Amino acid sequence: MAAERIDTRLLEQLTEQSQDLNSDAVRITNEALGDFTEVARDEAAARRRWWQRGGTVAGAVGAAALMSSLRATAATSGDDIMALQTAASIENLAVSVYRTAAGLPFIKNGNKTIAAFIAKTTTQHQAHAEAFNSAATQAGGKGQTGPDPKYAAVVKQTLPSITTPADVVKLAITLEDVAAQTYTKNVGQVSSAELRKLFASVAPVEAQHRATLLAVQALLAGNTADLIAVPTDVAKLPAAAGSVGIPDTFYPTENASPITEGAVK
Amino acid sequence: MTTAREGWELPISEAQLTRLTRDMEDAHRSTLPAMRTGAVDLAEQTRTRSTPDDGAADPGRRRFLLGAGGLAAALTLAACSSNGKNTSASSTKGAGGVSASASSAGKYTGDLKVVALAVALENQAVGAYQATLAAAKAGKLGTVPPAVATFVSTAMAQHADHAKVWNTVLTRAGKPAITNVPLSNQAATTSALGKATSVGDVAELALQLEDQAAQTYLFATYNVTSPAGIETAATIAPVEAMHAAILHYVLGQYPVPDDFLPTDKAADPALLTI
User: Fold this and answer.
1) Residue A147: CB partners within 8 Å, gap ≥ 6?
2) Which DSSP letter does residue A4 get?
3) pLDDT 10s digits, A72-100
4) How far apart, in Å, are the Cα atoms of A94 and each of A126, A199, B180?
5) N or C terminus of chain A with fewer C-beta within 10 Å?
6) What gap in Å lies between CA B235 and CA A252, rounded to an integer?
7) What is the pLDDT of residue B31?
8) Residue B171's CB: how many other CB atoms inside 10 A?
9) Complex-level ipTM
10) What Pfam families is this protein classified in (chain B) (predicted)?
């Protein structure tokens, strides 16, 4: 896009507003992680705590049902830890790829909105990696600091052939999609409500990254890169820009990574 | 989308529309059967967990309230209790002009109340997008950009598919399908749509509905007990979030504002008027 289309002050304001909005979401997630920590650290203590917290309803519920519920809440299996580590590995790879992309001359000196998106998305993936690793370590596992091996190989093979913003966007779409699919599937695999909440709060964000990148990809392909701006000239957007970013009625999971893929060996 | 002298015209050719539709159907083909299977599973799970005559004794329903150990969630979902009095109480908070097809209180309890809420939200979104198309056709929104027109049509179709899946769950569980919008905030939504005079106005409103839907599904993932219900909610939340991303972009806002999807805009099941 042409550099003169960028209103950097507006971009900064929007970024600031975005960060304000984030703070609430981060706080909520941290609270969830805090809950998860408490539950995972000491199941017995957690059982007592929930028993007390649920005191007003406990009388109306069978003790067996309540205890069953508490066990389900507190349970953290080896599978959970592997799922968290694999998620962290996907995030680590995404961070690495976006950082590499940010340094490429045609990104660094190119469309400012794409560069800003890459910067912001990098920080979001960092936050996800921290959240997944925090949950993994709190559950007694190790944090994953390495990249997902399967997709690291894909990136290694692809990086040398990347010469345009469209190439970067294509690779990023692949990574965002596998992240979104993996976490969507993980929601139904993990054993506690806290972990379901964690995975379910991250998957939609990766899906939003993908939606944005799909729209950007279409604009690049249509030689309308000047419309990749915030705000954009909505009236000039091609019709396809309204649908290309939302291709799925239900988010697929057939390409989800298995929970073992990025687990710490 | 353009406003023609004697009415509204689709801004793309019929051939383009046919091709886009075919592509979309191809894309959906692989997911819809799985979702229908999931719906059958969910219906079976909710049916086996329900005790029609005495929900209070059913541990499955109670797990819906307690399983997450969910702080505010437990309080919020108290309205979802299998206790008929609670359900009735929430239904008296005002239907806002809604005429429910399934209007007797207490028909939807436990996980099925969340399913009912999901259908209502999906129907609300479909109705909002239909109203947007009607307003555009009547020239009430000014010139509607082509990208906005295709977004509205696409998102509306996806919401309709979501509603179908959730209604399948209800009917297979022996409950009435919900074909209208039994939500106490529907009157306000309809009113706001009626006052919209620009694409920006309807986009703002649509964004609120998409945020509400995405966050409600997030909330559902850790508050329902049925595995199929959890999985279905998990596969829809990202789609609603993607709708929201496009709407943010249309509104001149950053498309991915949150690091983690929050739940502060999730719909309270007490909004249900049935």
Assistant:
1) A89, A92, A93, A96, A155, A262
2) G
3) 334 578 999 999 999 999 999 999 999 99
4) 9, 16, 42
5) C
6) 7
7) 53
8) 14
9) 0.76
10) Ferritin_2
Residue B24 corresponds to which tokens in the numbers above?
Answer: 């979309």
Mutate which of A22, A61, A187, A250 to disrupt the B interface (most B C-beta within 10 Å)? A250
| pLDDT digits 0-9 by tens, A122-161 | 999 999 999 999 999 999 999 999 999 999 999 999 999 9
The answer to whether the CB of A255 falls within 8 A of the CB of B252 is no
Q: Which of A21, A50, A128 sits opposite B257 (nearest CB)?
A: A21
Q: Phi and psi dihedrals of A222, rounded to 5? A: -90, 10
Name all domains of chain A by residue range, CATH numbers in brackets.
3-40+76-242 (1.20.1260.10), 42-75 (no CATH)
**Domain boundaries defined on chain B:** 9-271
**Homologous superfamily assigned to B9-271:** Ferritin, core subunit, four-helix bundle (1.20.1260.10)
* Residues A36, A192 contacting (CB under 8 angstroms): yes
Q: In a 3-state reduction of DSSP, which class is residue B174? A: coil
Inter-chain contact A61–B66, Cβ cutoff 8 Å?
yes
Compare all CA atoms of chain B with the CA of A232 and give the residue at the minimum distance. B252
Q: From the centroid of its chain, how far is CA A140?
A: 22
Give the distance from residue B241's alpha carbon to the nearest chain A alpha carbon, in angstroms. Answer: 6
- Which residue's entry shows tokens 């999906």? B122
Cα distance from B179 to chain A (closest Cα, Å)? 19
d(CA B121, CA B180): 10
Are the CB atoms for A52 and A232 separated by under 8 Å?
Answer: no
d(CA A151, CA B222): 29
SS3 of A105-137: HHHHCCCHHHHHHHHHHHHHHHHHHHHHHHHHH
